[in-house]
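dumping this here before i forget
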Amino acid sequence: MMNVGAVGVHHECATIDDDTETSSELGGKTMTYFGSICLIVNNVTGPGMLVLPIMFQHSGWFVPGVMFVAVTLISAVSCCAICDAIARMPGNRNFDKRVEFATVFEHYLGRNWGITSQIFFCLCISASNIASIIAQAQCVDAVFLAAFGEAYAFQFTSSSVGSAFSFVSSSSGFADGNVASGPMITVGYVLSSLLVMPFGYWTLDENVTLQIISFWVMDAGICVFIWYFLAGKTIDGGGSVDFNAVPMLGSSYRSIIGTIMFNYACAVAIPSWLNEKQENVPVNKTIWVSHLIATLLYVLLGLSAAWAYNGDCPYNVLTQLSETPPPGDSNGDCRIATQVTALVWSFFMIGCGIPVFSILVRYNLYVAGVCSARWAKFWGVLFPWVVGWVFYVGSAFSEFVGWAALLLFGMINFIGPLLLDLYVIHQPVQASAPHVPNPTSCKSTKCKGSPRSRRASSATQIELDAGYGGCAAAELLSSSELFIDEGLDEDSERADRTRTDSSGYARVSGCTVSGARGLGLEEEDEEYAPFPGTLMAYHKALIGFVAGAAITLQVAAMIVAVMGYS
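structure:
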């Protein structure tokens, strides 16, 4: 079935009604403003921030600073763009309908694009989730190394008498495959699955408490790390920090795009957040404040570590922070405290992101009708843990995730939302609505009040009948369906539909307060806008410019990677 609305012809996609949103499978609109900030900041930041110091030392502070500003703008505008496309869906001006990432593309571009976006979405999110699971297990194994001097695993072996497993240990961990050949499941992996996997069966709003805890642990850990760096504790016996270790311009800029751009992969989580945030949570303010906080944390931690290591910065500072200090180290006590902080910080930073990835896959598969709730839980929550242990040893999977991030993450998180919104806002209103006669079949008992005049877009003008009890409805003179998107009373509870009979008159069966985006009307109530009022006059130009910048960065990152310079 196809609907005709303010953005031309679009396809009816799977959505979940309001009475299902609060079911056990999907969360309700309970997420607060602060909880929303924590969720988005946690999605933008992560352990990847600890590879920034070496980038600052090699590239200086000016070019990375400009890149941080550019990527922050691109990412935030991409998030606002997907919000705008969702708000322009019929009856969804206030984000009342349950819409997920893939279903937005299906709604506007059709089933084939919906399937394509679903495949790319699930592939990228699942690959990232498995990579996070492996990193989480390695983090727990590092705790065993620090506490007991060894890490432990169950190793599968085969012999002439059949298959079996043995309990093995290593004083240097298992990530490098430095034990006898054969697949293994480490004790860290088993404990991680027991501690983290159950949260994937929760809803997104139920995970907010976990995200808030993770947010505060991240902030506290970063404060400890910055103190450790600026106090000169990285130098045996202490010493002064060399601010000249980070010049204005560096000698190499090869890793800037990949290091910065793909840390800001949060647009995929925005539709699910819109579904479960409280109605009074401001959309644009939450997105922009979250991005600014994340960027500030990135820059402060990256620069302080780059200053501290004075030209001898490790590739991943977290590795050095997690190491046990050698005997006789004059900063031993400080390093032990920092080591504990690094291990706890890693656990929360990585572990709290795994359930969010699982929930996003669950929601997209279930809401789009790809599979049942039970199978959505399997593919989103259980499947990554079932297969993740196979890739614990070796680097092949890490390389695959790296290429998946390079080729697909930019498309899904930046280019896709921007081009979709650009497509939507360029679509004209394709029909004008006939005059609606004075019907007597309006079922809504709350539809009261005198009609108010409305302004329609230049492509259509709808005349409201004074005797219509406060409701306005319009329909094409065809058999197509159209969501009723107009209502005058704020207490009206739900949207209904109308069909046009053979005589060309609309039969009205209800009223709505969800707005008139689908008919091209302008409501007196405030509608969602991705930019402030003065900038909305340049909406198309701004989205087009940002989309062009995102495509340019994506192409540049791919060229650098293919040429082997990243």
